[in-house]
Structure formats: C-alpha cells, structure tokens
Design brief:
31% of the residues lie in helices and 23% in strands. The longest helix is centred in the middle third of the chain and has 19 residues, at 232-250. It starts with 24 loop residues before the first helix and ends with a strand. It has helices at residues 25-35, 51-67, 84-95, 109-119, 131-137, 157-170, 190-197, 232-250, 270-282, 295-302, 314-321, 346-356, 429-435, and strands spanning 40-44, 47-50, 75-79, 99-102, 123-127, 145-149, 186-189, 212-218, 226-231, 260-263, 285-288, 309-312, 336-339, 360-366, 371-375, 389-390, 395-399, 412-417, 424-425, 442-450, 456-461, 467-468, 471-472. It folds into two domains: 4-20 and 232-472, Rossmann fold, CATH 3.40.50.12780; 50-207, Rossmann fold (3-Layer(aba) Sandwich). Strands 7-6-5-3-4-8-9-19 form an eight-stranded mixed beta sheet, sandwiched between helices. A five-stranded mixed beta sheet has the order 12-13-14-15-16. It has a four-stranded mixed beta sheet with strand order 2-1-11-10.
Length: 473
C-alpha cells in the first residue's frame, strides 16, 4: 500500500522503528537505568528518586516477587495512582519476567473482581487507600500475594511517615478493611517487600519480544472490560515510535536528561504509561501528580520547576485554563502540549495557545495500539482539528465493512496495522476473529477520512463508547 503520509513527516523523523534492538522491555529499562543512574527519574511532593534508586528498588521488589515462586509470565496486578511506587512496581514486574495488569484504583468491587478473575492475577501491589475494595472480592479471585503500599513509602523517612499519618488519620483516606488470609494468602507491606528483596538476587527475565508484557484492560459496550494483550515487542515499538515523533520538539532542550514531563494523567492508562516509558528511554524526569483534580495544588507544582512536556486530556487542559494562577506560569520551556485520551476541542486549543504560546498537538490511539496510533507533528504551530499522521512503522487504511480498502477521500472504518498493535484480546477468540481483517489490520470502530497529505479526520463512531473515569474507552 502507498504510504502517502510519509511525505508529510517532519524532517528527521524516521519512517520505521526497530524494536528488535532490544530483547524485551526489561532490556530497555535496564540499559537506561545504567546509562542515567545519577539522573533524576521522578519527583513527587518534592521528594526525588534517581534512575539508580529506581534500578535498586525495582530489582529488590522483583527479587521479592520471584521468591514467591510465581511462574514465568504470571500476572501481577498494579492498583496504584501516580506515586513513586508505580514506576518501581512496573519495572519490578517486567524485570522479574512477569506480566503487568494495570488496574484503575477507582474501580468498583465488581469491576476489580472481573479484571482480577479474567487476567488470572495471582499477586497484586495496591495502595492501602483502595484495600477495602480488594477485601470485598479477593476470595473470588486467584490472588494469593498482596503487597500493601502506603502513600509515604518512598517519600523519605520522616516526610514519608508524616504523609502516611496525614493520609490515614487526618484526611481519613484509608477506609477500614479486613483482608481475609485464608487459603495461604499473604499480605506484606511495600517497604517490607523491598527490604526482603534487597537480600536476594534478581534472576534475569526470560521474557522475549513475543512474551506478554501487559494485559491492558479496555471497556466495551457489554460493560465487561477486555484485556488487550500487549507484548514486549508492542511496548518497545510504541516507546521508540513516541521517541521518534517527539524528538523534533524536544531537541531544543539539548540534554534530554534535563527534560521534565508532567505525569498528571494516570499511569495505569496506556497514554500516560507510554509517555512514562519514553521518559525512561530518554533518561528524562517525570513530575508525578497523584491527584490532578486538585487544580490549585497541580498548578503550584507546575510553578516549582521548568517543564517541557505537558500531556493532558481536553477536560484537564480546560480546568487548568480556568485557574488564574495557571496563566501566570513560565511557559518558556514548554515544548509539547499533547492532547490525547479523548477528543480535543478547537476552543480549548485556541485558549491554550493564547495563554501558553504552545500549540495543542492532538493524537489518537487506544489501549489496543499501545496509546498513540496517529499524531499531529509536534512542531505544528496551529491546531489542526484532525488526528494527524500514522507514527513510524504504522499503516492506516480506511476500509469498508468487508475489509476492503477504500479509495483515498472516501469515509470508512479506520483500521491500523503495526508493531505497536496488540496481538489480540486475552482469552477472547470470538472478539479476536471480529477485531482483525484478513490482511492483518485491526478494526478500531472509528469512522474517518484520510486527506491527500495522509492526515486522518474522525467523523463518527461505528460502535458506542462508554466513559470510565473521564476517559473514552
């Protein structure tokens, strides 16, 4: 097929990516940990963690998980907000050779039970604030090992103790819970798991590019979410695609280890997760925002240090623009204002450009595509209103109901193929048969048109959407 979009690529953006340069996601992570050991990885509530500390802590937690005797590829659920424990846990699970199952901490007991049962998760790392939900359903699941995190675990000794005390006793954000310990189930604190793991050695992961890295759950009109099977190849490819696409805008930073991305969108969501992995690949840092709904605190955090990348959904950009203090920030370092997760509006984009001088860059993607499938060039100076061009290595075709490609300019279903596209839904053979065309494209359910320059515009939705915590899924 003719890739008409390649002629619209910004200078320097490659036409393809090579995920085969890595054996697995763990290989990518460990390379970056060694290369950037002394550089900051994240800051949360003014408490910094370096890549070296991320390396040591994730190795310790990974070794602890291995000591539990979990089988290779075992599913480990992660039910954490944007706090330092998330990055440590994600890296630990992947380095230990297991599969990450990201869970929305705001899930109801019914939603959590479905995801734990469907994935077959045998272990979970969870913030104690949400343990009461787990307690309701754990007996109906295969979970045998619980690692219980507290808010202040990785926020320094005294400050961390104060934060945990404040969350538990002043804000009263930890409802009472009683986790049943029947059937050999074990509960250990996050800090205890780290201390136990520090005395063990992490066995190298045996995962390959074709092993499952994540089961990323996505909603459906049935009300039951499906697990998109994302392999190590999918995740590495998506990370390299994001790097290729965003580098032209970030090049003005110079030393990318000095770049600071704002992690306000939940890291359990594939869009934010991919941008987190991009930061790790580049050796840049993340400012973790545990509760972006508290706009005054969020803006106060933005004021503390220069930031270069601001990913958000349209509603979050809107909320920031309504805050008077946001308009007083120094935006001189801002390279990319990336919109995703939901449709971006022209009104919000115009206001953002007026206030920050930064163009809102809109993209499109799904859990099934490891976040970004198409994106507008990050050096664009005007908001386009379309979803942009396919990223390197991705093919987009507009097809009819029978799977035939339509002539350029005709509307049809947007279908996508590439190294970032899931291999299928977990244990859903009937869904998988419907999800892919005979020539290997995944049907997205979005109706769109591609123009002569390769830009795609969504004009309708073939199947209904539902809203989960503010995201279209």
């Amino acid at each position: 097929m003719e890739k008409i979009w390649l002629k619209s690529y910004p200078p320097g953006v490659p036409h393809d990516v090579q995920p085969e340069q890595y054996r697995s996601v763990a290989h990518l992570l460990e390379e970056s940990f060694r290369k950037h050991a002394s550089s900051p990885f994240s800051v949360c509530m003014d408490q910094w963690m370096t890549y070296g500390e991320l390396d040591r802590r994730s190795a310790a937690l990974g070794a602890y998980l291995q000591s539990l005797g979990l089988e290779p590829g075992a599913r480990v659920a992660i039910m954490l907000p944007n706090i330092p424990q998330f990055g440590v846990t994600m890296a630990a699970v992947l380095r230990a050779g297991y599969t990450c199952v990201n869970v929305n901490p705001l899930y109801t007991a019914r939603e959590l039970e479905h995801q734990l049962k469907d994935s077959g998760a045998t272990a979970i790392v969870i913030l104690e604030n949400f343990a009461h939900t787990l307690a309701e359903v754990i007996d109906h699941t295969a979970v045998k090992h619980v690692v219980m995190a507290s808010m202040g675990d990785l926020l320094g000794f005294w400050f961390g103790k104060w934060i945990t005390f404040a969350v538990r006793h002043l804000a009263k954000m930890v409802p009472a819970y009683d986790l049943p310990l029947s059937n050999g189930r074990k509960v250990v604190t996050f800090k205890k798991a780290l201390s136990l793991g520090e005395h063990k050695s992490l066995a190298p992961s045996q995962a390959t590019l074709d092993s499952i890295a994540f089961l990323q759950y996505t909603g459906g009109t049935t009300g039951l979410s499906k697990g998109a099977v994302l392999t190590h190849r999918n995740i590495v490819a998506a990370t390299l695609q994001a790097e290729a696409w965003f580098t032209p805008a970030l090049s003005k930073v110079g030393d990318l280890s000095k770049a600071n991305s704002i992690a306000a969108l939940p890291l359990y969501h594939i869009f934010a997760l991919t941008l987190c992995l991009l930061a790790i690949r580049q050796g840049s840092s993340l400012t973790l925002i545990p509760n972006p709904r508290d706009i005054p605190k969020f803006v106060a955090e933005l004021k503390k240090r220069p930031f270069h990348m601001l990913p958000a959904v349209n509603t979050l950009f809107n909320a920031l623009l309504q805050n008077p203090q946001f308009k007083t920030l120094d935006f001189s370092h801002l390279c990319v204002s990336q919109a995703g997760g939901m449709a971006a509006s022209e009104g919000t984009a115009k206001q953002l450009q007026k206030v920050t001088g930064s163009t809102m860059i809109e993209g499109w993607g799904m859990s099934e595509t490891c976040a970004i499938g198409t994106n507008n060039p990050v050096i664009s100076t005007t908001f386009s209103g379309n979803i942009g061009l396919p990223l390197p290595g991705i093919d987009i075709a507009i097809k009819d109901d029978e799977g035939n490609s339509l002539p350029q300019g005709e509307s049809g279903e947007i279908c996508i193929r590439g190294p970032n596209v899931m291999v299928g839904y977990y244990n859903q053979p009937e869904e998988n048969a419907k999800a892919f065309t005979p020539d290997g494209f995944m049907r997205t359910g979005d109706i769109g048109i591609m123009d002569p320059q390769g830009y795609t515009r969504i004009i309708d939705r073939k199947k209904d959407m539902i809203l989960v915590s503010g995201f279209n899924v």
